[in-house]
Amino acid sequence: MAIYIEKVDVLNDKKARKRFIDIQFEIYKDDKFWVPQLRMELNKLFKSGHPFYNTAQCAFYIAIKDGKDVGRIMAINNHNYNKFHNSKEGHWGFLDAIDDIKVFESLFNAAAEWCSSLGMEKFIGPFNPSTNYECGTLIKGYGEIPVLMMMYNYEYYQQHIESLGFTKAMDLLAYHMKTETQMPEVIKKIAERAEKKESITYRCVSKKRWQEEIKLMYEIYNDAWEENWGFVPMTKDEFFAMAADLKTVADEKLILFALVNGVEAGFIVCLPDFNQVLHKIPNGKLLPTGIFQVLRAPKLIDGVRVITMGVKKKYRLYGLESILYFRAHENIASYKKYKNIEMSWILEDNLNMNKPLLKMNAVPYRKYRIFQKELV
């Protein structure tokens, strides 16, 4: 049967938005490892009022076969990204489709054609919708539930994407370690040596001053990450919107600042793995029964994700990274319920992050790939 591609107005049309969201739920409904996002959060992300769209232009496509929606893709012209990198890259994301290469090909063709019409020269993804959110195709580490805000897909995704001419742009790594794992002496000594200096201290965040704390993180984030591959400067509205979403699952003891002379110079964010709760809400709805799983969260969650860490460039020789890792691990271990820690994601070529993690006896156990293709 022929495959028909329909361009839909997800950002402004409620019915189109529901169709776009429903496709993922239908494709993964029988997969025991897939974790559905809350529909209320997806609806928020796919509305024109979301701050991401203030600096990006997007198009949404749905693949139809035998009268059924069987795939979807989002094409993205990220103005912030292209301006920062002085590039002409078209991005793609939110790709989900049945195991049919013709469906993949039809979706990619539609999204690539749209990007080409805007003068883009390269096609790269997946970004959902940028590196500041979720990104990468899972290519190693199947057979387990993904952690909070990490991608998941069937194994056939990589095969179909590569067969359509896409090649590796960058791999992202996820590390795992047991909470009971002792920090190596070298990390401990560097942290303790740094803390002996009167100018260096650390503290946990305060939810009572959440807005002020987020402002400090925002200032550090863009400075700390701007030299990394794929970096996209976050607008203040974007950063604050994401922080507001995460506040409900955040634990003050697991988010730390490192200070130099009383000035916040770096931070680390560790979040309880709320995916262990969402996994038990297959329809993605809090009502009528999903809310009861949320109330059980303290009993369901036994893992933590170290979601991000950043130190301002001018403070990178102060040993702040070791302080943040050491004290965050100490605080996580203070909870008997947390058995597992994932540090993700880490660029494969970021030696400043990968080397310390290996010294900490963390194991790279999942790999995600960003794919690229030249646009003709």
TrEMBL record:
<protein>
    <submittedName>
        <fullName>N-acetyltransferase</fullName>
    </submittedName>
</protein>
<dbReference type="InterPro" id="IPR016181">
    <property type="entry name" value="Acyl_CoA_acyltransferase"/>
</dbReference>
<dbReference type="InterPro" id="IPR039968">
    <property type="entry name" value="BcerS-like"/>
</dbReference>
